[in-house]
Structure formats: structure tokens, C-alpha cells
Amino acid sequence: MRLKQLIAIAIIVVCAYACKEDNSVEEAYEKELAEIVEEEKILEFGFDLSHYEFKRDTIKKGDTFGIILEQNNIGYPEIYQIAEQTKDTFNVARSLKVGNPYTLLFSKENENDSLQKPTTFIYQKSLEDYVVIDFKDSIQAYTSKKPITYVERTATGIIESSISKTLDEKGLSQGLAYKMADDIYAWTIDFRRLQKGDRFKVIYTDKYIDDSIYAGVHDVKAAYFEHNGDSLYAFRFETDSVKGIIDYFNEDAKNLRRAFLKAPVQYSRISSRYNLRRRIAVYGYKVRPHKGTDFAARIGTPIMATANGTVTESRRRGGNGKYVKIRHNDTYSTQYLHMSRRAVKKGDFVKQGDIIGYVGMTGNTGGPHVCYRFWKNGKQVDPFKQKLPEAKPISDSLKVKYLDFIVPVKQRLDNIFFLEAEPINPENTIKESPITDIQ
Ligand SMILES: [Zn+2]
What we know:
The chain is built from 8 helices and 25 strands. By secondary structure, the protein is an alpha+beta fold. Strand 6 (129-134) and strand 7 (140-145) form a beta hairpin.
């Protein structure tokens, strides 16, 4: 309707300028515009919305399915019937969330009727997922997904001060930083210590819903990072299609993941490193060895197990405060001190990245942090000085396949050049045709 009004205004404007001109030209133009209006389809949720009157809104606090329909002239017996008959597909009484969008469709036939009733309620569970409750003739409900498109792109960047700033300046998604810092290089590069001049190239896919709504970086296919003079390649490869296991390996098929995470907390800073010769003022500058690494973080920050293992201790004791100790294998154990709360108990099996407790100040500590202690063969060592074991290596048979697979990808990566002299440049992200279409 709104579109028609706009077109009508456009016609009037055109008229105002063209009225003194030849009438037939004007008529032809008008006819052309009318045809454009006819052809304008609004495809969404599997409907051509141009065939309907429709109302879009979001669920407000206090809204219920009943209230929404009642406000749109549907009576309670019918609302009850609709809710009852569709509850196995979608429970309208329980599943509506404040802030989520919904759309009501009305037939165009009675568009001037002030008591017009909707025929369809469409609720968006997420950007992708929606549920249609149709009560035009018979009552039916079904869930569906919006079409998703992936677009492959490439990007480069040189670190000036931080990766997020570099991405910002180039108009690139911060999602790229998260993918690189958390999924790909979490074990090999400390993103809190990037240096000026470090640089990267990536081949990645962006995700779009309905061809137009940007839904973030979907995945990184390959990356190259120069850090501290080291060149680190990373190629995404599925090692188990049944379980859907995907890992990143380097150009020699070495897994980039390590058996241990670099830190037990995200977005923290190291406030004190492992140091056997530490001297502290409050102790009269006597040597007080620090056998842990302190990560300062806010109280309540989740603490993660840095590797798979079994909890051997979870308790409160003396200067350690509340702590958890995990045995990973015959060689390694790790310990996490000063928690505000523990989230695991002795005997629990934990996976790398699982939350085992929260940062606190229990025991001997001057501020909120987690003291991370790394045990090797019963002795506390500096985890940053260890050559930590790789995560599951690639099998020999897969290795051949992998090395074959990466040849063209690496070639592509090597052929991307750093184009840093230019400001925000759309050509830095080479848009290619969509590569996949789901549905
Ligand atoms: Zn400590």
C-alpha cells in the first residue's frame, strides 16, 4: 500500500513537471509505472506479501498471542481454538519472546473494513527461523527457515594498534577477529600481544538471510597471519564428516589447536607471570616465588578448563581459596585458584573450554583474578615456556587428502596482496557470486 502511495506521489510530481508536455508521453509513462507496481513482489516467509495487507510489529512486554489477535478483531473462542490446534507445532502461550518480530497478514479483499481480521500470524523465533500460524480457512501451523546465502570474500589487514581497530578502519566485521582469535589461532597467537606491523589475509564467507540481511561471518576457510616474524597458515578442514568435526591445520597438516588453551579466561590480562624469583614489597622484598600465572578479570568472569580432563580437587583451602584442580593425563594437571564459586565437583569429566568456576577473591589475593597453575609430572612449571602437545593429529590417510585439498586454497591465499595504502576499499573484499543456497 505504502509503495502504491509513493508511486502515486511520483506520478503527481512527474505530472507537475510534465503537464504542459504532450499528454500521450505522460500517459505512457503512467502506464509504465503502473506496470512496475504490478510486478513488485514482496517475497517473504514463503508468501508474496504484495497480495496481502500486512502489519509488522515486535512482541511487547505483556503481549500474548490472545492479546495481539484480540486487538485485531479476533474473538476469544477462535483464539482458543487456534492455540489448541497448533500447540504441538508451536506453543503460543509459552514461546513468544519480548522483542521478537511478528507479522500479521490480512486479506486485501476487505481492506477498507475497519474490523478487518488477520488470516495469518507469522512469528520470528530468530533471524532465520519462523513459525506460520494460518487460520484463513482451516487452522494450521508450521515452522520454516528463511533462505540463507553465503558469499565468499577475501580481506587483508595490517595491525597498527589492535586488530579490532584495523577491521573497523577497513569496514570489516569484528566477527573476523573473534574467529581468528578464538577458533583458529587461539593456541598459536596471543591476540592480546599483537604487534604493530603484524598482518593477515583471510578467505571467508559472510552469511545473509533473505539475500539482504547481514548475519555475520559464517566461517573462515583459510587464513594467513604474520606475527612476530612467524608466518602462520591455517586451512579449515573437516576430519570427520559423520561427527562434523572441523579443525584448522597448517601447510604441513599440523593441527593448530593445542591440547591446552592459552588462558583459562577470555579477555583478561596477565597481572603476574610465573616467576621463581619474584620479590614482593609487603614481604620485605624477600624472594617469594610465584608458581602460577595470574589472569586479572572481573569477579564472576567464567573460568574455563584449558584442556579435557577429570576434576581431582574442588574445594576451599587456605590461601588458595576456592579452587579446582584437573588431571589431564599422566603428565599434566592444571589448577585454578581464588574462585568466587566453583561449578564442578571432584570426579567430573570436563572438556576444554567448559566452565569450571568463576573469578573471585577467595584466599590470599589482593584483587580479583584467577591464579592458573600448570603441573607437569607433579611439578609446577610455566605453561608459556612449555612446548604443549598438539590436539589430535590428522590421520595418515587423511593427510594425503588434506595436502591435496589445500593446494588451490593456498595458491589463492598467496595471490592476495596487501592493499593497505588505500582507505576503506570495497575492492579489498572481492565480492563473488553466492556459492551456496540452502533450500
Ligand atoms: Zn598467582
